Description:
The protein is an all-alpha fold and 203 residues long. The protein folds into three domains: 37-71; 73-119, no CATH class; 132-202, no CATH class. It contains ten helices and two strands; from the N terminus they run αααααααααββα. A hairpin with a 2-residue loop joins β1 and β2. α2 packs across α3 (53-63), α4 runs parallel beside α7 (112-119) and α8 (141-147) crosses α9. The longest helix has 21 residues, at 182-202. The mean pLDDT is 80.
Amino acid sequence: xQRLSKRxxxxxxxxxxxxxxxxxxxxxxVATWRGVDWTKQNIELAAERSLTxxxxxxxxxxxxxPPSPRHGRQHTTRTALxxxxxxxxxxxxxxxxxxxxxxxxxxxxxxxxxxxxKEQAVLRxxxxxHPWERMNFALPSRDLGRIWKLPFNMAASYRYRKRLGQPxxxxxxxxxxxxEGRHRRAYLRAVRAEERKARAWRA
Length: 203
């Protein structure tokens, strides 16, 4: 058996450093936050863990977790509804465009603010209502658009949505093609009648 000389010393066994109490406490604290759904808002997580939203915000910052994708949405909605409640009398009778002009606030027709104001019957619909029931859809859509001063292609879109069928007279190649005689006279009479209806409606 080989003997160790006086100058040789037995090798020390390598061992990992023992974690300190502070490190152990930190590891245990981190473990308590595993499995948390960080897509939830701070106010939701605070309610689940009996903490304050401010404490949840601090934990996010400690772990480097970004804010919730829904961050601020609930607060924004609450603020908007409170604003509407406080200004209910000033809003009464206005249109959506007038609210935007006077208060600088846009109203999403799919959002909770719109539904709240609709339930309160506060705003009036300022959109132009076209007298579709008065129009003669036997005429070409382009004639209806010209006579009733409709936006481009609106008459054709309405015809398609309501399944009103093809007009009795139509344009081909950009021009109205009708034989001389009673067909053309019938078309011109229909156009003149439509023009009279439109003038009476606008009067």
